[in-house]
């Protein structure tokens, strides 16, 4: 029988973190997809299929090139792979990506995809979990915001994603598949690459140049998969992104921060949002486990930290909550000695939230104080608000709209038409 003290401790933990509802398991009768696998996992699959060990490295390299460099979606495209091996591959595996359940395009060019993953558990009843992935185009870069969990472990009070249940962690392959799907959707493979500019007037080149782990989920509670996914995304014989263009954002899972730097060598972003423990305990309840002093100590020791590899501190601007001049000055004091930039994020409202966005002149004054202290302090331009693709909005509204959208689809009205009119 649980004691009152144990019950209290469990209740306190539940207010900080959520446990996953589902755990992945092998489903009989389903051919696995080779898309998104690490090199070692791909080689193991081929050996398991019967490729001789002495040939496995070469064969895995051939498949890797077609999947991750060429973007092949059918084994028949692999012109330097023998006919017999292609038939064997098609018998045992697929090159399936997640299903794109809906597509939305914002007035500002931001794109959001609702992706339905392959089923990984009997409880999913042949319907995989759904996540959202966002592409944000810019004049000199294109950023893809990827998810690491279905739902989120954490319970941040200002974030709508945090109000949802945690269904499960994504596998490394499922994280990588978000990039592969985005390249499919954008025509971003060799021989297809259009202008980087949405209007067609910019330089020709990769549309997806940067990855941010700022979608659904807390990446450091799924670190094994995140590390493997970063490795696949940054392989220069495949998807080819620079690790300096891959940023992993965390709310402050302090024990995992050193390992992220050592094994993923990715850029680090911290969801800070407050300069006092009492307020951060409310905004980011994980702070009760890992308070600000511990978090900043881990930041100062982050592997590879330098002026060329600064940490980004994210700070959501909440009216009359964390946006005073005193807060700005304390932020500068706390970050002294850390190579950093401060990303100020206007709060993106969602139904039922008790917070409001700071007034624009207040945001500018806060930014001015930080900038005058020597820190870059850009104000993040809200992107994709009209399609609920902005920071803190992912998946939430989709859950509400999905049932109605499906009814309309059954009546012959397309989901895209429904979403397009949702903001009117």
Key traits:
424 residues; alpha/beta; 9-stranded mixed beta sheet; elongated; disordered C terminus
Overview of the molecule:
There is one protein chain. Mean pLDDT is 84; it is low at 1-11 and 389-424. It contains 13 helices and 11 strands. The chain is 34% helix and 13% strand. The protein is of the alpha/beta class and 424 residues long. Strand 7 (210-213), helix 6 (223-233) and strand 8 form a beta-alpha-beta unit. The longest helix has 17 residues, at 53-69. Helix 2 (39-49) crosses helix 3, helix 5 packs parallel to helix 6 and helix 10 runs parallel beside helix 11. A 9-stranded mixed beta sheet has the order 1-2-3-4-7-8-9-10-11.
How many beta strands in the DSSP annotation? Answer: 11
Rg from alpha-carbon coordinates: 22 Å
Instruction: Find the structural class using helix and strand composition.
Output: alpha/beta
- What is the average of the pLDDT values? 84
Uncertain spans: 1-11, 389-424
The order of strands across the largest sheet is 1-2-3-4-7-8-9-10-11
Q: Cα distance, first to last residue?
A: 55 Å
Q: Order of SSEs, N→C?
A: HHHHEEEEEEHEHEHEHHEHEHHH
Proportion of residues in helical segments: 25-40%
What can be said about the biggest beta sheet? 9 strands, mixed
Note the overall shape: elongated
Number of H/I helices: 13
- Strand proportion: 5-15%
